[in-house]
Design goal:
Layout: H1 3-44, E1 58-68, E2 78-88, H2 94-102, H3 104-117, H4 129-142, E3 148-160
Antiparallel strand pairs: 1-2, 2-3
Length: 161
């Protein structure tokens, strides 16, 4: 198999792992809250039906991005690479989830616009909070009734090519 194919497969696996690491604290917090609620029910002696599987947040991966010449400067060709996933609330209806899957290209366009609106200093932040906020605002413009819980940016690289 060519090396580029192996590299793509390796990058795909790394992205999945990074996405899992980014979502793990939210899932752990939900499980901790559920465990404490179960413990509270056992202490009070109330017989309530506990949810065996807590609803998981809806994660919509937007895929990989590669922006070149996003900020024209003299004698430089900036190269920006990243992957984005948007986390919606766990109680997002199934029909809305299916519709969002068809809106991926619109959401990708808004992500590109947000990245082009970001200032150079925003990319220097380790947590990329300002960039995440810009993406969240752009997505909220086209989905005003659907709250975005979190914007996950993985595989972020800024360089000159």
């Amino acid at each position: 198999m060519p090396t580029s194919t192996w590299n793509r497969r390796l990058l795909a696996v790394l992205r999945i792992v990074a996405l899992g690491v980014a979502i793990a604290p939210k899932i752990a917090a939900a499980q901790t809250a559920e465990a404490s609620a179960d413990a509270g029910e056992q202490l009070t002696g109330t017989a309530g039906e506990a949810a065996e599987d807590a609803p998981q947040p809806f994660v919509l991966p937007l895929g990989d991005f590669h922006l070149r010449d996003w900020r024209p400067t003299r004698n430089e060709t900036p190269d920006l690479r990243f992957a984005v996933a948007i986390v919606f609330n766990a109680d997002t209806p199934v029909l809305t989830r299916e519709r969002l899957a068809h809106w991926v290209n619109r959401l990708r366009d808004q992500t590109i616009i947000a990245m082009r609106l970001a200032e150079t200093k925003d990319f220097a932040e380790p947590s990329l909070q300002q960039v995440q906020r810009l993406i969240r605002v752009r997505v909220s413009r086209i989905l005003p009734r659907l709250a975005v819980d979190e914007v996950l940016i993985t595989d972020f690289a800024l360089g000159d090519n």
